[in-house]
Amino acid sequence: MSEHFAFKKLRLGVNIDHVATIRNARGGAHPDPVRAAKIAEAAGADGITAHLREDRRHIRDEDLALLSAELHIPLNLEMAATEEMQAIALRWHPHAVCLVPEKREERTTEGGLDAARDTNRLRDFIAPLREAGSRVSLFIEPDEAQIEAALRVDAPVVELHTGTFCEAVEAGEAASVANELERLRKAAALALEAGLEPHAGHGLTFDSVGPVAAIPQLAELNIGHFLIGEGVFMGLGPAIKEMRSIMDEARAPAESADRDTD
Ligand code: PXP
Prior knowledge:
By secondary structure, the protein is an alpha/beta fold.
């Protein structure tokens, strides 16, 4: 595959988990994550991402049922690789399933899945999801060993964890920013070269999204917490549109690459 190969459009998946976090802080039904998903859809999101956690701290089963019924854009269900979650995914057969590591005590998904250590189990776990028609992705650190493991378990998509890069941007650590960006670039190129579709996400903001969006091999970014937070100040729709426009601007030079795809 040519190193100039690029996905023409970088998709934006909007993660609406933290609308549910705010709702759950008080109980009741407000604010409604399904309403947020519809606003995201109207603002140009290419997909909606929702993480059904074991402890249901934000998205709940009934949200998933409503999202499955009411969305017109693809739903990406993030979940741990547990039997309970597999049964739920097989019930709702979302467009995509992103497998993430999950620790009860963590505040958010702190690192990538260690696919390299769990190859046999993951292969068996993924097979029925793929047969049911969901595109399975693995949320991994941008490392060669994890990409190789994704190939071994037959996951067609990898989502590269951008958390460390975003922390470096926030801390203003130029050397770490450069190192982490290089890791992401290399991993995206390697994944695409190997026949996987590379996505990326976690912790992205208006300040950090540009260099990641400029990586031509990436096909999709998934962004949540910052957009929901920024929605408080500028409105969710405008925040999504602003994110979209920064992504498009960063990606623009790649659109003249030799080989573009849809
Ligand atoms: N991608 C994955 C796999 C995630 O687990 C998360 C967080 O739930 C995100 C993207 C979005 O991260 P953030 O909410 O920090 O934008």
